[in-house]
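FAQ
Q: What does a multi-component entry look like?
A: The components come first, one per line:
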Amino acid sequence: MMTFLSRIHRAAGVVAVLIALTGCATQPQESTAGPQVYDPIEPVNRLVFAMNETVDTFVLQPTAFVYKTAMPDPMQEMVRNFLRWLRSPVVIANSLLQGDTDNAGNATRQFFVNGLTAGLIDWGHGQDWGYRNEDFGQTLGVHGVDGGAYLVVPLIGPSNGRDLVGRVVDIFFDPLTYIVSGPDAQTAITIGRNGTEAVDFRARNFDQINELKASSLDYYARLRSIYLQRREAMIRNGEPAADPLAADGSNAFEEFSPSDRPRSETGALPAKSN
Amino acid sequence: MIVLRRVLFLLFLCTVITPTPVWADDKGAAAEKFVAELGDKALALVTDKAAVGEARREKFRVLLNEHFDLPWIGQFVLGRNWRLASPEQRETYLKLFEESIVFTYTRQFDSYSGQLFEVTGSGENGRYIVVKSQIINPANPNGNVVVDWRLIPDGETFRIVDVVIEGISMGITQRNEYASVIESNGGKIDPLLARMEEILEGLRKRT
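Then the predicted structure of the entire assembly, as tokens:
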């Protein structure tokens, strides 16, 4: 009991620091720049990013390669299903907090049905009761909280103030936090699970990630942009924004008019061009 | 006589007023057809085992220029830095830009594994027409990828100016990335061009 209380205490401290971080994260500098990228501690982020890249090259990538080559596909599938199943209580809690009872219902159904086979088989695969992933970062976003400062977290990777708070809060939505006793077992489970998730993700996107790296002029900036846009899309559950905004929430497309137009002389745009 | 004239006038009004919404529907349908045709042609090219190497890249380049407004996209990606670039820099930039798109995408062709392409609808987004589509993976029912196409009218037809994959806009991503490269080089364009050249060389070697 004591360890559990002290853990809550520690987590509360972390949350306070994180909220302070998001608080500092006011609005992006100048909207004329278009992109809504807000990265006030870029040099620190780039340093952490470089460290994470080193881990990727020397640890994650080789592990993921062995994993995807040596492990039979059906077993990889089972690992993926199990990880997803472990997360479903968090999805249920966050769907409810977003008022999305449909998604909560589907995730609940998956949790119990797949629970019969210890989460190893996804019986809802391709059925109409599949569910979207939800986390507390998205819940905050749905309720209008801005992403705040972009952050690169050691070993975890791209995040921002809002999503990092979300990660910590999600720990409390996770039944495993209460089932497992003892800080050592807890730590072992956290490391094991996050590590497996990382290996699974890297293995599934092995070539794509390498391709992305090879074609990037500035891999850090590209990932930052992708993270920002992807999270925005996830918060809106893939629906388009109400306003005619670009994928990063900026007015980039509405404000843009090409300075010379050798082609496309008709339509709505050329009225603004010369 | 007056009544007849009034009826005629009303009829005239009807014919003048109605075309707008009808035309808008037509425009959406035409835009959907435009993207669907691109999908068919791209799929034909991807599955064409005879087209390899430079021949395949050349076919893709033609397809790309027929359907995309590359100068438009190139300018958008460079953002306000376009105005700072000299005519020579602009020319070099647009060439490198097209080249890197050709190399990046043709390299992805080999990872094709039976996916299907389906246009699912269209609508308007501010000044643009947006066509919605899906890449369907028969092997993985949950693995559908949502792709949106941003179009501008071009005479009788259209031009694509952005592709949004699962909420990630290619134009915005590259704009952010290029802006970062230019910014970290003191606002100069030449280092960006040098870096583009360097990456392209790397892609060429890997092909």
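Q: Is there any commentary attached?
A: Sometimes. For this entry: The CA atoms of residues 109 and 129 of chain A lie 8 Å apart.
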